[in-house]
Structure formats: C-alpha cells, structure tokens
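Dear colleague,

As promised, here are the two records you asked about, laid out in our usual form so they can be pasted straight into your sheet.

NAME FIELD: protein one
SEQUENCE, THEN STRUCTURE:
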Amino acid sequence: MSKKLYVGNLSYEVTEDELSQVFSQCGQVTSATVIRDKHSGRSKGFGFVEMPNDDEATHAVDRMKGTELKGRPLVVDIAREPERRPRGDGDFGGGGYSGPRGRRGSPRGNQSGSRGRDRSFGNRRDDNDGNY
C-alpha cells in the first residue's frame, strides 16, 4: 500500500520535479506535489510525496528529515488523513447580509439611527422654557 509523506519547510523556489528527484534517492516516487496558493500561485512552503512501498517511505522519512534543500532543512513525516469536518450541523456561523442598517422594529417608526431626537434646525425639544 502506498504512503503519502508530508514535506515541510520547503523553499518557495522548490519545484515538484526537484522534490520528486530528491526523494527518488530513497525509492520509487509515485507523485510529488508542492502546495500553492490558489490566488497568487506561490508555494505555501510544503508539499506531499507519495511512495508505493511502505518500507521505502519509512526509509525516506528517516533519511530526508533535516536534509537541506535549497538552504532549508526539510521536515518530513508520514502524512495524516485530513480531518473530516461535519456538514449541516445547524450552526450557520452567523454573519451575512441582514438587510439595510437602521432601527428596524422601532416603536417610533423608522428613525434610521436618529435616536429619537429631532434633528431639524430651530425646532429643539430640549429647550426648557417652551419657546421655539
């Protein structure tokens, strides 16, 4: 059964061909992938190497861990399965569009954030003498 290896601390300049070539020193390489940012296309600094033979994969982990590639020591380990995220658990996470801002449902009508004060010029409710 084939094993997938995680390879971290990659230089951003490492290509998939170079990664495959380096790991082929330890055995047959089925595939080598450098993970890239989907927007910029730039390497994220890690990748995966798949090897068909378990013994060769274990040997590659032991031999390649800490080996320098383009000036950076490699971090190599057996890759873990991605965690399964539950879907549709009822928690929609909040956020999103909730309509126009303002004071919806205000007992004084649509105040649109005026906080109940009359903002018109010359008609002030806060005068105590009653003269407007």
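NAME FIELD: protein two
SEQUENCE, THEN STRUCTURE:
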Amino acid sequence: MSRSFDRYWPIPLRIIIGIAFMVHGAPKLFSAQGHQGFQGMLAQMGVPAPQLMSWVVGIVEFFGGAALILGLFTWIAAALLTIEMLVALFAVHLSAGFQFVQIKGMSDQGPIFGMPGYEVNLVYIAGLLALFIGGPGPLSIEERVAKPESPIHPPWWRRREAHG
C-alpha cells in the first residue's frame, strides 16, 4: 500500500460505525413509539431511572455517531460508545453466547431468531478503541481546525504533536 494512504484507515471506521450508531439512536430520540419501547425494555431489565437512561442512550448513540462521522470529539464519542457497548454486552447479550445470529427454530416463513450474542458488541468495541487510540485521521474536523494543543484532541495526541 502506498505510504500516502496510511493515514486514511480511520475514515471507513468513522463513517460506518457512526452511521450504525445514528441509525440505532434515532428511534430512541425521534420516535415516540421507539423511545417508549426502549424505555420499557430498560425498565423490564431493572435499569435504574429508565426514563432518564433512555434519553441518555439515545443521545450518546445519535450524537456520538454524528461526531464520529464528522471527526469531531472522536476520542470522547468513542469512549462513551465503548462504555455503552460494554453495558449492552454484559447486561443484554452475554447470556445469549458469542454468536450474533441465534436460530432457535424454523417456521413456515423461515428461521426464528433469538437474542443476538455479543459478537457484534466486540466488533464495535474493537473499531471504537481503534478510533480512541488512533484518532479520526484526515478529512476530519479535528484535523482541519484544531491546534495541536487543543483539548479537542486526546491528551496522548497533544503530547505527541507538541514534541513531534
């Protein structure tokens, strides 16, 4: 691979992961039925303050996804989304096992699916950690407008840019 393309690895991660989180967050924020359904699920699971947490999760997913796409506050968005994925992994998906697709039986219409396992949570976490550590890369707002010492960059980047 050409050395000129080495810095571009974060772009597909930012865009694909960002879109996915926006798609999951949008109904929690912009659909009364989606929001109430998610709030009810949180209450059924015993999550404290489900009314508040349903908004928090929707905001983190939707606006965190938008931040990733734009390459703005990438490390903060990646950290918050990683925390959310860890909570989902342990609170929801761990008991279903590793496999994301769980076929529980067959019907006349096709397979009957069960609760997804934690496989996709781990894939999201891997991509988010790569962005957390490596930064947003080129074609990001952070690279275009932020000075090296700006708090928009993670602390480990500020030291590296100041000395390098």
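A couple of things worth noting about protein two: The CA atoms of residues 77 and 106 lie 40 Å apart. The two ends are 24 Å apart (CA to CA).

Best,
R.
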